Amino acid sequence: MRIVVVSAGMGVPSSTRILADRLAAASVAALHEPVEVDVVELRPLAHALADHLLTGFPSGDLAAAIETVRRADALIAVTPVFSASYSGLFKTFFDVLEPGLLEGMPVLVGATAGTARHSLVLEHALRPLFSYLHAVVVPTGVFAASEDFGEAGLEARIQRAAGELAALLTGAPRQPARTVEDELADPTPFEDLLRGA
After folding, report:
1. N or C: at which end does the chain have fewer Cβ atoms within 10 angstroms?
2. What is the pTM for the complete model shown?
3. Fold entry, domain 2-196
4. How far apart are CA 105 and CA 135, in angstroms?
5. Are 62 and 45 in contact (CB under 8 A)?
């Protein structure tokens, strides 16, 4: 089984790549079987992407990156947020993929930004993009603002999204949501709720 991580982080290191790596590690752990993980960093491909837009042909490392995505069983796609949407570099990469390349492929989406104000990018930009490309987007996307790193809430979202991706890949039955009765039978202590706030 092969998972391909596409990271559009601009810095080295970048919070985008850190989130992408955490999502990949959690997904591998959730699968309980051998998994090959390939990472496609878009930053070094910026010039090749511009050339592809002009010529219509991928070359060198970009052609290899596209082939890597073609061979994937699942995709983890993470972008920084610019102007309330995915980065231009991120969008350009998915623009140059041939039609149908992602059809039916499970995709876990993630995004990073400086503040939580951008958290809806998952729903108003990323999910529509991959739906248009006919990918199967897992229900839980993972957004991480700067202050989320190191918080338990981020790890819980990562684990949930990774479990959903693993279930799509293995055909495992969906875990039922906790009901009110479940919560009443095993309540979360108020102190834990306060710690998570």
Report:
1. C
2. 0.84
3. Rossmann fold (3.40.50)
4. 5
5. yes
